[in-house]
Specification:
- The structure is a single chain.
- The chain is an alpha+beta fold and about 350 residues long.
- The protein has eight helices and six strands; from the N terminus they run ααααααααββββββ.
- Strands 1-6-2-3-4-5 form a six-stranded antiparallel β-sheet.
């Protein structure tokens, strides 16, 4: 077999083996190489205010750390979703490569059979055999066989060429997708590292507080939420809100309500724990209407509605970077998975800066 064909088949086999390893149970990506510990200026815990001096400053610092962790969680979820999709695409290509290799083998066998047949006839071309025949009856039969043989040979060569071309394209496509998968893996690992750094810094800051300071901090958090909710309601924003939920919206709200009290875990989609977008995406999946996995994609892809038009089941997107999402359940309240260390809970819809409202089943 020519060198080019051997190289193509070797490349195809390599892709298939790689995909097989990727899909094998228990297979995990290699851990990222260790990086030097961050300096004081680059550490998430840098410049943390001393506990007991200004608890309001501590509260603001914790909010910032958990917000940054939420942003990184969205990046992690997006990278994971991409990696899953890319892995499935590579597996599909691998199946096409295997089928192509089998087809090429069949074509090779057909060509070999034709060569053996020619050898058995003494190497005399069919045209020559036809011209040397003394039997007039064989003339017409021979002419038909010659035409059929020529047509079959042409088809065989054409099909072999097309199959080789398809295999090269599949191998090139698989290689490109493999590179994208590797990029997604690296993005996922980087996001995971940042999440863990932010959460560790927040826990370290909280651990430095005494019991009374922790109790006072909890009161400050509640007070800040009350002020934000009151200010939001005082704008009259709910004055014209009277939207009736859809049948699917009721199912989504029922699912979210059933998750109350379950812990927040970043990257979790249930059934025992959730992050913010894991809760909303699973609620709408349970309602029979799948939506994007991350809060940022929910904001980008779902239809936007005015606050005055919102109804139970709609999703409220928070912060300028769409890093948090909650489900509106009526009467100015939401159900959401707040952050690490908290559980799925009911809260005021105005307790965080609202970016906008989206409707999954518009």
């Amino acid at each position: 077999m020519p060198t080019a064909k051997r190289g193509l088949l070797t490349a195809a086999l390599t892709v298939v083996c790689a995909v097989t390893a990727l899909a094998a149970p228990g297979t995990a990506f290699a851990a990222p190489a260790p990086t030097p510990a961050p300096t004081a200026s680059g550490s998430p815990a840098a410049a943390t205010p001393p506990p007991g001096k200004d608890l309001e400053q501590v509260r603001e610092r914790l909010d910032k750390l958990y917000h940054d962790a939420a942003v990184a969680t969205d990046a992690y979820n997006a990278a994971e979703e991409k990696a899953d999709k890319q892995s499935a695409e590579i597996a599909t290509l691998a199946k096409k490569i295997v089928a192509g290799r089998q087809k090429l083998k069949r074509l090779k066998n057909q060509a070999g059979a034709a060569a053996r047949d020619q050898y058995r006839t003494g190497g005399i071309p069919p045209t020559a055999q036809f011209l040397l025949s003394d039997d007039p009856g064989q003339v017409l039969d021979g002419a038909g066989r010659i035409l059929q043989g020529q047509k079959a040979t042409k088809q065989l060569l054409g099909e072999t060429t097309r199959t080789q071309k398809e295999l090269r394209e599949y191998a090139d496509d698989a290689e490109a997708r493999w590179k994208k998968l590797e990029a997604s893996r690296k993005a996922k690992a980087a996001a995971k590292k940042k999440i863990e750094q932010q959460i560790a810094a927040a826990k370290k800051l909280e651990s430095r507080l005494e019991k009374k300071e922790k109790e006072r901090l909890a009161e400050l958090e509640k007070e800040a939420a009350r002020k934000a909710q009151t200010a939001w309601l005082d704008t009259g924003v709910l004055k014209d809100v009277d939207g009736k939920t859809s049948a699917q919206g009721r199912k989504a709200v029922a699912f979210a309500t059933a998750q109350l009290g379950k812990p927040y875990v970043w990257g979790a989609e249930g059934p025992k724990a959730f992050d913010c977008s894991g809760l909303t995406s699973q609620a709408w999946a349970a309602a029979g209407h799948p939506i994007p996995r991350t809060s940022q994609e929910q904001w980008k892809q779902l239809e936007h509605v005015d606050v005055k038009d919102m109804r139970p089941g709609d999703l409220i997107i928070y912060f300028h970077d769409a890093s948090h999402v909650a489900m509106y359940v009526g009467d100015g309240t939401i159900i959401h998975a707040p952050r690490p260390g908290r559980t799925v809970t009911v809260a005021g819809a105005g307790t965080m800066p609202i970016l906008g409202v989206v409707r999954p089943d518009a």
